Model the fold of this input.
Amino acid sequence: MTSTKVSVSSASEPKDASRRVRRVVDKLARSRNLNIDAVRQALRDAIKRANDMRALGFLHYAGVIDLHLPDGCKVAIIPDWHIPAHDRQVSFMVKQWLTDFRPDIIIVIGDAADMFGLSRWPKPPRVVANTQSELDETRRIIDEIIECSGCMHLFYILGNHEDRGRRTQIDPNANVASLIDPNTNEPILNFHQLMGYNPGDPITFIYGAFEDGGFGGGILTNKEIKFIHGNKVAPKPGASPYREADAAGKSIGQGHTHRFGKRARRNSKGLIRSFEFGHLGDERHPYLGYAFNTNWHQGLAEGHVHGGLLHIQMLPIKKIKDKATGQTKSLMLADGKLYQSSGY
Ligand SMILES: [Fe+2]
Done:
């Protein structure tokens, strides 16, 4: 995998990675009989309409994006990755899957970056934190999945961990967090600027309505399923987004809890579904030192738009002990193919 940064901005000399991404996307669209320009334009129009005409190239958005995905569109949903405390074996497997699945859209549902260095929780002695290297690693992996999947656009919903950057500025003096960069008219330090993407890159960072992360921002797909990072936490898998779904009268897909499950119920408003997508972190990593005795489950999901609706297939990741080597391996079954990691 390359660490080349992906950009499809209107630079006169596109980078190699951009050219590769364009080639892959065009080939993919042809093979599916999709009009790539129409799909891309529909997406951009949707973002543009909802974006209050911000002159930012729509790199970031505050609130819930109302997105209509056309039939034939494939979506990959990536829950809490917690980079650099991610499960490396699982991540390799996820990239293999994305390479095969070829989603048109990727939804990163928050906490892709752990932001341990900016956490306000007490840090254990000897656990080294370097915020810049955490951001660099997150950027590298986000670039990789844009490139290997050939996706047209990646939506990055901010989680409470990405919001650590904003909260850590409020701590010493709330006015620090409210200082505005005169060039961008944005808060001086914000997650999307730290990630180093530019307007026109195939990525949109989604904040809450008050430019906070984690609680409020999201994507409503085809007027039916809302993807949010989530903030309700219930012990049983599928129950956390169900609380949200029941209250909102809309189907909800969320991360945050690191649990994996789904529920459905028909009420007077119709069929309400709730999806909880699990996580892709490494529970043994010192950054996730609070992960003892957890009720966490690894997984992710894929979606297909058909008949104007987004259909979701949950993909659990299971750990097994390889009898021959005694090593622990991760397995995931997707589209009839068994993906497995190397052991550790
Ligand atoms: Fe998380």
In short: The two ends are 21 Å apart (CA to CA). Residues 80, 82, 111, 159, 256, 258, 279 surround fe (ii) ion (CB under 6 Å). The first helix runs from residue 16 to 31.
